[in-house]
Amino acid sequence: MCVIHGNKSKIFRKPAIYVRSRDIGYEKTYLALKGMLFYTIFEMKKDKSLIQIKKGALEYCVLAVIAEGEKYGYEIVKVLTERGLTTHEGTIYPLLSRLHKEGLVQAAWRESGSAVPRKYYRATRDGMRALNEFKESWSHFSQSVDGILWGEQ
């Protein structure tokens, strides 16, 4: 059982529980551990249209990062996050698998500085072609949307 009062929560009979608190336009998820509020693990403005745009563009953002040079999965996530497109490994790995099946990237296991081998990805010719086509389409699309939204012609 969980009781939430403003910023406080009390947990009874469960070692760990997720607590969701919904504010106007925001959702916060907290992890409560052994009766103490542990930390905020998720806070995001609910904007379904932005989520749909991200879903459509993420594949090509991943291709663009890989086109800069071979990278492994976590490294791709880091680069995307540093550039303002926060995503998680749980999203990237299935996407990389699909890109591999479609022949847009090649993957190879390699030893790294750590004891664990890593799977490195690089863009194929088809992947580079798809990325260039997307860049051209995105440029035209974003200019059109900007023109509509901001009243430019």
Count of beta strands: 8
Radius of gyration: 21 Å
Strand order of the largest sheet: 3-4-5
Question: N- to C-terminal separation?
Answer: 57 Å
Mean pLDDT: 78
- Total helical elements: 4
Shape: elongated
Overview of this protein structure:
With 153 residues, this protein is α+β, with helices and mostly antiparallel strands. Helices cover 45% and strands 31% of the residues. It has four helices and eight strands; from the N terminus they run βββββαβααββα. It has a three-stranded antiparallel beta sheet, with no helix packed on it. Helix 1 runs antiparallel to helix 4 and helix 2 packs across helix 3. The radius of gyration is 21 Å and the shape is elongated. Residues 1-44 have low confidence and may be disordered.
Write the layout of secondary structure elements.
Blueprint: E1 2-5, E2 8-11, E3 16-23, E4 26-33, E5 36-45, H1 48-67, E6 71-72, H2 73-82, H3 89-101, E7 105-110, E8 118-123, H4 125-150
Antiparallel strand pairs: 1-2, 3-4, 4-5, 6-8, 7-8
